[in-house]
Every structure is written in structure tokens, then in C-alpha cells.
Amino acid sequence: MSLEFNHIPVMLEEIDRILTPYKSGLYVDCTFGGGGITKKILSKKNTKVLSLDRDNFVEPFSKVISKQYNKRFEFINDKFSNLQNILSERNFQKTPVAIIFDLGLSSFQIDNPERGFSYRQDGLLKMTMGKNNISAHDIVNKLDQKNLKNIFNLFGEDRDSGLIAKLIVQKRQDKEITSTQELVEIILRAKRYKNNKYNKVDSCAKIFQSIRMIVNKELTELYEGLIFGIKNLSIDGKIVVITFHSLEDKLVKKVFDFFSNKKKGTSRYLPENNQNENFNILNIVSRKPVVASEKEVKKNNRARSAKLRYAIKIKDNSFEFKRSSLNLEKYFQLEEAIYA
Ligand SMILES: C[S@@+](CC[C@H](N)C(=O)[O-])C[C@H]1O[C@@H](n2cnc3c(N)ncnc32)[C@H](O)[C@@H]1O
User: Fold this and answer.
1) What is the pLDDT of residues 79-109, one digit of tens each?
2) CA of 84 relative to ligand 1 center, distance in Å
């Protein structure tokens, strides 16, 4: 594999500004990708970085960084939902000074037709980021019509979810659906049938993204990563999250709000005990997400939908958190049902 890796990290300047002043301590980059954020942190004196990525394709990039930074850097090919175990098993410093999540796909994943993430190229239906139990092929060929519709509806917010699900089930009665372009054809057939004014890019992007989120159980991953992060950060430690999907941003906002003293407008779904001071362990510096500058969006189109949220830990408290407090159970339960 070529070691040329063209992923341009989104909002790197903003992340650098948030992490400044850098401390000597452990930084956890939960989504290593091409290592852009990891390298930025390692360029500062006395920092240590533990980087994770579920995709083993990125290991060669980590080896290049390892050579340069040696003992200050370690890469582990694992999911960030497993961070708790990784830290306890491996004798790492257990209270990171910062934890960073830069979600979504790297250019390396999306541009490789063999991975099947892109509706723009022909490839096998895979969409697995790494360490998966199921693939897009399983979703499209094995799920019943109701579950398919729910995925497109909940995760893709597509108004033609029912018809797309129906056409998929019809098509696969003749033969298995194996390629990304077969799926594209079905989506567009549904759109034409409904005579909707539709946008090919938007329609395909939404359906592909909804399948990808289920294949990689992305919402549950993020939820577990966030709760772990908040529990284990050191005091004054920072948690930084960049999302590319409205549902993920909603999840981050709700979790941060729950643990902060800024619970404005959230009383409808927060349990009473959240009014308790003990849950006020985060300081949210800005309630609005940080977005990329126009200049950055011009240079890197991926940045247009990025939303960055961050919080600083101000107090250490043990807590038991009920996921249902977030009012997002229908999404989590759908992920669980598919994985069951
Ligand atoms: C947008 S890229 C990160 C780019 C990186 N920040 C950089 O500067 O190059 C996202 C990466 O996160 C990885 N990833 C996504 N979900 C993950 C998870 N649950 N656990 C570990 N890695 C994950 C993907 O495989 C991908 O390589």
C-alpha cells in the first residue's frame, strides 16, 4: 500500500487553539485516520499520544509516526468504545489530559472503491470501518423490509424510505444485491417513481450514510466513547468532538448538557436527579458548535458539515448514567436489534 495519505484534517487550527496550552500528559486521539491531529499534538513538547483506529489500513501511517516519536506515541487498532479496557489493561496513565474524536470517514476510506463507502464509485457493498460483525451486503440482502425502512427513515431521514426498502426486497428476490451501483439504481428508481424533485447526490448520500452508521454501530460507539471520556478525563482535561451528522451532533450536545451546569431547555427529558449539583462536572465553553471558516470550506469541502463541540472537566464525581435520559432510545434500539 502506498504511504501517501491525503486526508486533510478538518478544523485542525481550532483543535490546536482549544488544546493550547499543551500539558505534559496523555492525549488520546480516538480516531487516528491519517494521523493529522496526532502529529499536531506530538509536535508539542512533552506530550504523549495514544491513538486508536478500528481500521487496520491505517497501521502503516502509525508506523511512520512511531519511528519519529518512539516512546511518546502508541497506536492501537481498536474501537474507541473499548478505551476503558485498553487503558486498564495496558498500564497507561489512566487520566488523559484530553480526548479527541474526529468522527466520520477518512479520505482514504471513502476514496477506495473496494471499501464500498461511496455511491460515486462502483464497488462491493461493504462499508465496514474495521472490527465489524456485519457489512452493508448483510444489511441490504438479509434485513426485512420493516427494518430497512426504519434505517433509512431514522438514520437517513429519507421521505421515500418505505419505497426504497420495498424495491430492495423485490430486487433481491431475483438475485443478491452486491454492488454499490445496484443500490444507487434502486434509490434513483424509487425517486423517479415518486416523481419527486430529487437531488441524486443528496438522496444517495443519505441512504449510504444510514447503512454505514448501522454497519459500524456508530451511535452506540460514540455514546460509549463519550461516557468513558467524561468519566476518565483528568480535572481541567478537555474532551473535543467533531461530528458530520446531525444525529451525532445531537447526541454530543445532549450528553454535554447533561453533565454541565447549562441545562437550559433540557428539563423535558432529563431525570430529576440531573438537577443535582453532582452532575455538574463539565464546563461547556460555548453552547453553539464551532464550525469551519469559509476559507477552510473552500479548500476542503468535507469541512462544510463539520460541527465541533468541546467541554472542560471541572469536577470529579462518580456517576451512573442512564442512556434513556437522552431520549434517543429508538436509534440505539434499532442498532441493537440489527446486531442481535
Ligand atoms: C475523519 S477520520 C480521522 C482523521 C484524523 N483526525 C486525521 O487527522 O487524519 C476518522 C477515523 O476514525 C476511525 N473511526 C471511526 N469510528 C471509530 C471507532 N468507533 N473506533 C475507532 N476508530 C474509529 C475511522 O476508521 C477513520 O479512520
Assistant:
1) 999 998 888 887 666 789 999 999 999 999 9
2) 18
